Amino acid sequence: MASIHCIGAGLVGSYVACRLADRGHDVHVHDMNPRPKVVGYPGVMIHHGDALDHCEELNEYAEVDIVVNMLPGDIGKIAMNTLNEQGYRTVDLSFSDDTPDLHDEKARDWGTSILWDVGIAPGLSNMLLAEAYRRLGPLARGEVRVGGNPTGPTGGWNYMAPFSPKDVIAEYTRPARVIRDGEEVVLPALTERHLIDVPEHGQMEAFLTDGLRSVLSSIPAVEMSEYTVRWPGHIQRFIDERNAGTLDEDELLREWWFDHKMPEFTWMEVRAEGHDGTEMVWRVADHGGDDGSSMARSTGMVTACCVEEWLADPEMLPPGVHAPEALAPGVVARIIQTMRSERVRIEGPDIEL
Question: Within a domain: residue 209?
Fold first, then answer.
């Protein structure tokens, strides 16, 4: 079994750490305030302190077979830049605006291998779009719709953040890069709002966010977009308070804090259309379980599967920075197979092992 260092142990990070420990690995968690879930968990060693400082000396705590960066946003970016100079195999889930592919040459110079954005979206969504491209050729249209939400409207914001609230706010403020007429363009986040029907849940609202990232350049398409899904009323309230100057980020962090007692679900639809009109559609849904929330499970399971695939095949990726769509179809098929075995519902065309 491997020695795995998990940088950050929030809602998703704690799930990944526990899952990898359950698989028999020696897991080292670096976090100043880890979630109670990982404290005392069999197979998990907690290294309390500033995770950014720890990134400079991981091998002083234990042998390093692979590193998983699960710090949020800008903090995760700093950690990734440090890890890039350490020569480790690193799985990155930080979702910062400064994406690791900008540092590909540096990673190759240091002998570092990085697999980034390996959650549900971006992550599994990239893998599915890549499968559509492999089978259909250049796409006429690619669309991703995804969201983690309470199972029904709750009043107020109709929402609680299933990962770092600061990262959610960044989704709402970061301009959305999309493909229009075969070219990358930048549109304001939260635009192109439209209502959709989510199976078993009814009418919800989708709006543009900046989640395409690496597929903007790796998958040719005439039109390609990513939309975040929320209950109607949520994003209008955000826009109204932002425009009125009454939006208080500290208050949002409190009001959006995740309530483990509230039923919730994560849902994603990936839709791709070829130039001949052939369409491929995948839908992913999870309602959480005793092991974690739906977003922790659907995101963290992809992350943990990528870790184990890489451990099983150390040559899976050479030095450099690699996006999820670089993974071989067999790897993607095994990830989906594992998720289905763990009660994550995935409907759509099968991917051959």
Answer: yes
Distance of CA 119 to the CA centre of its chain: 3
Q: Where are the alpha helices (DSSP H) in 55-103?
A: 73-83
Which residues have C-beta within 8 Å of that of residue 337, sequence separation ≥ 6?
A: 353
- Which CATH number characterizes residue 105's domain? 3.40.50.720
CB hemisphere CA count around 283 (13 angstroms) = 7
CB 108 within 8 A of CB 84: no
Contact, 302 vs 119, CB < 8 A?
yes
The 10s digit of each residue's pLDDT in 101-128 is: 888 999 999 999 999 999 999 999 999 9
Token pair listed for 253: 């962090």
Q: Which domain does 250 fall in, by range?
A: 124-295
Supply the pTM of this predicted model. 0.96
User: Last residue of some domain: 75, 97, 116?
Assistant: 116
Contacts of 218 (CB under 8 A, 6+ apart): 126, 130, 323, 325, 326
Question: Residue 95: what pLDDT?
Answer: 84
* 58 and 172 within one domain: no
Q: What is the pLDDT of residue 167?
A: 83
| CA end-to-end distance (rounded Å), the chain | 24
Phi and psi at 266, nearest 5°, equal -120, 135
What dihedral angle (degrees, nearest 10) is formed by the CA atoms of 15, 17, 23, 25?
180
Residue 319 belongs to a domain: no
**pLDDT for the residue numbered 159:** 96
**In terms of domains, do 129 and 249 share one?**
yes
Structure tokens that stand for 3 in this block: 């020695």
- The parts of the chain modelled with pLDDT lower than 50 are none
Indicate whether 9 and 154 sit together in one domain: no
Residue that is last in its domain, among 116, 151, 179: 116
